[in-house]
Structures are given as structure tokens and as C-alpha cells.
Amino acid sequence: MPMRRRVLAAGLAGVFGAALSGRTAQAATAPPVRLDQLNLVNLSHVNDPATTNVFPGDPAFELETIATIPDDGYYLQFVREGEHTGTHWGAPGHFNTGEPLADDLDPADLFRPAVKIDVRTKAAGNPDYAVTVDDLKAWEKRHGRIPDESVVVLWTGWDAKWGTPAYPNTGADGVLHQPGFSIPAVKWLIDTGRLGRRGGTGTDTFSPDVGTDETYTVSKLVYRRHRISLEILANLKALPTTGAWVLAGGPINRKGAGSTATIFGVLPPGVR
């Protein structure tokens, strides 16, 4: 195994050994977690122009077959899309001048502990629902404190609407109607250290902002330092409420605003 892969494997095992032990002292003596004991769940939609809802104003998404096995001896497609088309992650510089772009981030910025907050019932009754500080505190009373530098994922139920007009949920006035975080809720997550320097937010909608907020205030707050946003997530039913991590892949474009991505939930042994 090449040295870089050995270092990565050892690092992942150490991370999960520490996470599962619960205490720093115990982590020093805890047996390492074997990587083949980790369970991966796919949190990404298939990148398909026939089913991909494109954010208003973004370029059209196209796949063009440019080589076939009968004609060329191999099969290849040409991809045309924005960096934030379909399931993707966003870099801090996506909204804030001078903040890190995709090629400024470290691998650890894209591999974070995660919690899932289920707001499907409230979002079903109000597509403009903005998650409140009280919602977050109520969640913590039930599940414990959100770990520092986590990705806080909202499960709004919008992942089930993907590929239909109900996903953007555009009103007659052309405004999107999707749930998200309230500004006070994100400020609370930041001020209390729960998002920290390299945490972030996740959602099954276009954005952590409520769709009606065209100022993107929540995004501007989240996208600072090394914090990221995971957007248009899929299959959130498979992501545990606590105990999992999220790993965001995708090409690292030079000065990229982020990347279209395959995002995985990484589940240590015993986490379901």
C-alpha cells in the first residue's frame, strides 16, 4: 500500500477510535477501528439531466456522448454543468470574498462528524419553515449536545421531491419555497462553537437558506473560515441522527466554488 494510503487509513482508524471511545484517555488505549467495519451510505442523487432540478439562473446541465465502443473503442461523455448542480458541497469562497476556495481546503474540511435534524413534519405544513434556536435546543435535550465542528444536516423531506416541480416549489411570483435555517439558529450554532472553524450545514434542499430569502444571509454566515455546506442531499433516511460522519468527494477545481459530489455518510461500527 502506498505511504499516502497507509497514512490515510491510519488517520481514519484513529479518528473513529477516538470518536467511539468518548474520552481522550480511553482513545489512547482503544483498539483501532478496522476500515472494513465502517458502513457507507450514499447521500447523493444520480447526476442525470432528465431528473436534475437546476437552481434558477445556473447553466443548463447536459451530458453528451462523445465516444462509443463500436466507433471509438471506448465510451465517454462530455459533461456541462455548474459546480453546484445536483448534490454538491460549497466552499467558503462561494459567498465570501477572500475566504477559502475548493483548492484551499484540507481533506479534513470535507470529512466531518454529522448530526441529522428531522424537520419533515414542520416543513410539510410550511414550505417556508425556518428552523429555530428552540428547535435545536429541543433536539439537544433528546439527543445530546451537537459536537463542535459538526455538519448539522436538516432532513426536510425535500429529497423525496427531487426531479419534480415540487422540488424548487416556485411560486407564481417566481420565488422558491423551501425550508431552511433561520438566521438566529445559524448564529447560535456559530456563536456556541457547534459549527466551529470547519463544521457546516447540510440539507436536502438547494440551500441552508429559506428559499424566500434572496439575500442568502444564512449562507454568508455558514460559509466563513473553513466551513462548508452540503446541499441537495439524498437518502437522508439512511443517515443516523447521531454518530455518523460525512465525507464529501468530487473534483477539486482550481479556485472552485465547491464541487458536484458523491457525498457519503460514514457509519462507525454500532451506529445505525
Automatic annotation (TrEMBL):
Keyword field contains Transferase: no
UniProt keyword terms in alphabetical order: Signal
Any one of the GO BP annotations: L-tryptophan catabolic process to kynurenine
Segments forming a coiled coil: none
Signal is among the record's keywords: yes
Signal peptide start and end residues: 1-27
Domain of life: Bacteria
GO molecular function: arylformamidase activity
Record protein name field: Kynurenine formamidase
Organism of this sequence: Amycolatopsis pretoriensis
